[in-house]
Amino acid sequence: xxxxxxxxSCHPQAFIYPLMVSSKSNNDSPRTLAVGEILKSISDHSPGxxxxxxMISEELNRVSILWCEDWCSTIEEASKVFFNERNISLxxxxxDSMHAxxxxxxxxxxEVSFHQSYENVLNQALQFRNSYSSTNDIRDLIEAWSIYYxxxxxxxxxxxxxxxxxxxxxxxxxxxxxxLILAIPGTYQPQNKLISIQNVxxxxxxxxxxxxxxxxxxRGSDGHNYEFLLxxxxxxxxxxxxxxxxxxxxxxxxxxxxxxxxxLQIKQYSVTPLSTxxxxxGWVPDCDTLSSx
Length: 293
Description:
Blueprint lengths: L1 H9 L5 H8 L6 H16 L3 H16 L2 H18 L3 H15 L6 H27 L2 H22 L4 E3 H4 L1 H5 L20 E4 L2 E4 L7 E7 L4 E8 L4 H19 L1 H5 L9 E5 L2 E5 L11
Antiparallel strand pairs: 1-3, 2-4, 3-4, 4-5, 5-7, 6-7
Protein name: Serine/threonine-protein kinase mTOR (Trinotate prediction)
Keywords: Kinase, Transferase
Pfam family, one: PI3_PI4_kinase
């Protein structure tokens, strides 16, 4: 912890994004408490950096999967657990977690619209689900699933039409951010001039693959555009470790005379986890998804 504080006093941008991921833990483990102290130390000598990193992380997570998409995948997952695995308690836990996630104050125009369209019908399903917990009457659960199925059909149809995401509706805070001191993900190099976030492009393209990731474009303080793939429902921490391994291998190849002459190296791209199930991957041009192929 003391070592990280010392490094953070000189190079806070080097690990501000990983610290944001660790800070999202809801437990009171020594690790979580240590992360809180490190972030406080960074806030003391780099005012605004932690707040900006938290805002960017929170809003990108919001944009990575909309409530309508999240509910659709949740109902699908819960139905497989319920009907295929016959695991009632787990399927209800999955649904309850999603109810808790969306049963909050709407913070964007899109979330307001979702509440207006689906809050009442979702509450109807929840009432039958809660009635089952009280009475253990399977008919209540069947009624709840009938409502969830109707919601799924509507949302699935709606989601199939989403090919562009306008930040004006889904994340006004992200749209309004300007001239931040926070580095663009994956660009920080201690020996180079800091490239900070100037702004985020107002529209994101939705890639037509199974998980529907987004193409994110960030304008840097150097005047260049930086493109990323914003993915949800995927833990990118393993991908990040693989890229770190490739970096070590490239150092070995560069220090070997034979491999250096042959210009042997592994192509890398940046991987920046934003949470345990979302993150950014540096855009690789001229690629197709397996789905499109």
